[in-house]
Amino acid sequence: MPPKLNVHNFPRPPLLEKTPRHLQIKWNNQLIADTKDAYWALETTHPPTYYLPPDSILLPLTRSSHKSFCEWKGAATYWNITNPGNGSQEVKNRIWSYEKPTKSFESIKDYLSFYAGPWDCYVDGEKVEPQPGDFYGGWVTSDIEGPIKGGPGTWEW
């Protein structure tokens, strides 16, 4: 079992580093992403946000018109994906990337991050829980501890 990681010990600004953890994303029991070559961003009060290399994504993505801006990483591009079990169901804006990230985050250029749902996300075989709320995209595993930003009453943290 990995050591506990307290989110209040993570840095601000965030730390970006390679992680050896095995990441998988399954949708309708079909593997749609699989890698041991990802990055994680660790930021105070947040569980890790994982960034997967484009070649680890096993389904095609289509670019969304939705955009957002992160004070640390820059402008985010969002992506849509079609459910492999139901070709008429397209999920929009639950995947994002940085095409021109800031200098500190250049390593994740074009890497993709997934919200933890509607698909199932796994870290080293453990199914993750989504970060509270629906704004941040962190993945909560059993080795994460401490109060996490995202739920009611935490926006001022």
Please explain how this structure is put together.
Strand 7 and strand 8 (74-82) form a beta hairpin. The radius of gyration is 15 Å and the shape is globular. 0% of the residues lie in helices and 43% in strands. The chain is mainly beta and 157 residues long. The protein has strands spanning 5-6, 15-19, 23-27, 30-35, 38-42, 49-51, 61-70, 74-82, 90-97, 112-114, 120-123, 126-127, 129-130, 139-140, 144-145.
**What's the overall geometry?**
globular
Biggest sheet statistics: 4 strands, antiparallel
- Ends distance: 30 Å
> Helicity range of the residues?
under 10%
State the helix count. 0
Structural category is: mainly beta
Tell me, rounded to a whole number, the average pLDDT.
95
List the strand order in the largest sheet: 4-3-11-12
Topology of this structure?
Blueprint: E1 5-6, E2 15-19, E3 23-27, E4 30-35, E5 38-42, E6 49-51, E7 61-70, E8 74-82, E9 90-97, E10 112-114, E11 120-123, E12 126-127, E13 129-130, E14 139-140, E15 144-145
Parallel strand pairs: 1-15
Antiparallel strand pairs: 2-5, 3-4, 3-11, 5-6, 7-8, 8-9, 9-10, 11-12, 13-14
Descriptive terms for the model:
four-stranded antiparallel beta sheet; 43% strand; single chain; globular; mainly beta; 157 residues
Short description:
The chain has 157 residues and is mostly beta strands. It has strands at 5-6, 15-19, 23-27, 30-35, 38-42, 49-51, 61-70, 74-82, 90-97, 112-114, 120-123, 126-127, 129-130, 139-140, 144-145.
